[in-house]
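Protocol step 4 of 6: structure prediction from sequence.
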Amino acid sequence: MKILIDTSPLDTGHAIRGIGTYTRLLVEHLEKEADITIVRSGTKKAENFKPDIVHYPYFDLFFDTLPLLKKTPTIVTIHDVIPLVFADKYPAGIRGKAKLIKQKSSLRNVKAVITDSESSKEDIQKHLGVAADKIKVVYLAASPHLKAADEKEIRRVKRSYKLPKNYILYVGDINYNKNIPQLIKTARYLPQNVKLVCLGKSFIEQDIPEWHWIKTQLALSDVENKVKFIADVPGGAEADMAAIYSGAICYVQPSFYEGFGLPVLEAMQCKTPVVSTQNSSLVEVASDQAIYVKEDAESIVQGVNQVLGWSKTKRQQKIRAAFAWSQKFNWQKTAQETIDIYKKVLND
């Protein structure tokens, strides 16, 4: 099989986001397979390449990312449709709505849609009108390079990033569905010696509603000195990321909704306990290996306090079980299931 993959997300701001991670790791693992030829778009090799399938690993609801006319059988990955689930929180505007109509039309003649979870599959059916039999669920996985760090590495990153001695961790964006204001409020109820660390490129001063919500909550809860923002971990610094995960008391996923929730697996792989809200895809990803909480700050901190109350033995038991669960997700499996979809498309 000859597959052309649109790797344009790796050349944009998406390179350091989940979309970039998915594209990079999927392509890297597909390229290791002997019975398939993978060519990346935009390369010299792609100029005269005649693929059997074109795969777009990214779909934007409000921008032209999928052509209407397709000369070659086409597959697209749609990670989630959260802006349509919370339409009142993600106003598209007139242009965005027009683009959405065009993007929906572009989906009609794709051969298959890949998505990250059963939850997202249901949303794609409901909001984009794609038939259920055309949507294939392929779970993601944490990067194989993210591994539990030793104490020396943890001390190094704590010095390097000026991390608190004791902290709970959040990794991700600040979009509405992430529920960051309630996460910030959680810091108000944490023990005096425990702080909150929020890591992600969007945790910088900026003139957008989401940042204003964060600043307002910091002031209302009076927790400016209990919250640390980190926006500058380099995209490729997986050793640093692993040590930041490993050094945390627990990882907290406070979201109202997720299309997958990759940091949950990343934390488990780094042997860090997970406290998570119980909705959307998160119950698929975490199974029974997370402490589940409601979306309000008081409930979240109850989950954190559970972790703080564990004995050393119980903590080790919990993280071993969660680590074993996380290993059921791997990129070899993701790549192979993607290849199976390619084969089915060509054989139909």
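Step 5 (inspection) to follow. The chain has a mean pLDDT of 95.
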